[in-house]
């Protein structure tokens, strides 16, 4: 066993990779991109929100961790990851700027709390488009180069809401359940090529979107302390650490798996 610092040193010492993170303007995606950048990897941030450009500037200004090397470039691209043409164009630009994508983190997501009876067919399609279709489209765009190289990592963000279901999130939970199925099936497709595909399932994580949905953070913290085995609030860095672990060189024998990051909220 190694401590957290040693793990980061070992990851940083590994070959620098080209990493794409979708939904990277803020929240979990931003933290994941920051982690890879700090570890010395070149990172492309994709998002439909123009805020992604400012986020990239912030990460570039912060710089990689000492000793990480000069490879750690940060670029940003506006992209609608639910649209095939937009994805194709964005990945082509990343390829021109950084090289072939070696690590993909499908983080883009959309959730809206509402009574399921108010969900329209258009709402349903939108949830699947952003949460599930996007993972397929971006994976399809980068996987051929990974297969040709004999190495690659794809990490998909699902949710613990899939494990137990949750009221007022029917379309979101359904889409995130689809992400698990997609992860397992794609792992079967790509395993022989040296490409692993895994999922991370965050629990209650403090993000901008959570704050918008649950403005009473004190009450939420009390509730989560009662249901989690670890009573503290989850952070975006907790999720970023899990994603980075699955992307490591040493994680080559882990594929098709779901890593739950929820402080022991759901226990099978």
TrEMBL record:
Signal peptide residues on this chain, from the entry's feature table: none
Species per Swiss-Prot/TrEMBL record: Herbiconiux sp. A18JL235
Keyword Magnesium listed: no
GO biological process per UniProt: monocarboxylic acid metabolic process
Name of the featured protein: SDR family NAD(P)-dependent oxidoreductase
Keywords annotated in UniProt: Oxidoreductase
Listed GO MF terms: oxidoreductase activity
Enzyme Commission code: 1.1.1.-
Family to which this protein belongs: Belongs to the short-chain dehydrogenases/reductases (SDR) family.
Record Gene3D superfamilies: NAD(P)-binding Rossmann-like Domain (3.40.50.720)
Highest taxon of the lineage: Bacteria
InterPro entries reported in the protein's UniProt record: NAD(P)-bd_dom_sf (IPR036291), Sc_DH/Rdtase_CS (IPR020904), SDR (IPR050259), SDR_fam (IPR002347)
């Amino acid at each position: 066993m190694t401590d957290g610092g040693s793990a980061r040193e070992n990851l940083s010492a590994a070959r620098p990779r080209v990493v794409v993170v979708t939904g990277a303007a803020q929240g979990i995606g931003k933290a994941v991109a920051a982690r890879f950048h700090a570890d010395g990897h070149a990172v492309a941030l994709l998002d439909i929100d123009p805020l992604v450009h400012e986020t990239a500037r912030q990460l570039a200004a912060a710089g990689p961790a000492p000793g990480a090397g000069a490879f750690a470039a940060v670029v940003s691209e506006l992209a609608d990851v639910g649209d095939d043409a937009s994805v194709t164009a964005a990945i082509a630009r990343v390829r021109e700027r950084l090289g072939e994508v070696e690590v993909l983190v499908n983080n883009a997501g959309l959730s809206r709390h509402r009574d399921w009876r108010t969900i329209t067919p258009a709402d349903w399609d939108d949830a699947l488009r952003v949460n599930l279709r996007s993972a397929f489209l971006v994976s399809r765009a980068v996987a051929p180069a990974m297969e040709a190289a004999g190495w690659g990592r794809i990490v998909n963000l699902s949710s613990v809401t899939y494990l137990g279901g949750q009221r007022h999130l029917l379309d979101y939970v359904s889409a995130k359940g689809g992400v698990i199925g997609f992860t397992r099936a794609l792992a079967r497709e790509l395993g022989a090529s040296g490409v692993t595909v895994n999922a991370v399932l965050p629990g209650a994580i403090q993000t901008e979107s959570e704050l918008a949905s649950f403005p009473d953070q004190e009450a939420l913290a009390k509730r989560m302390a009662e249901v989690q085995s670890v009573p503290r609030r989850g952070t975006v860095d907790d999720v970023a650490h899990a994603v980075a672990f699955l992307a490591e060189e040493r994680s080559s024998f882990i594929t098709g798996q779901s890593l739950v990051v929820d402080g022991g909220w759901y226990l099978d």
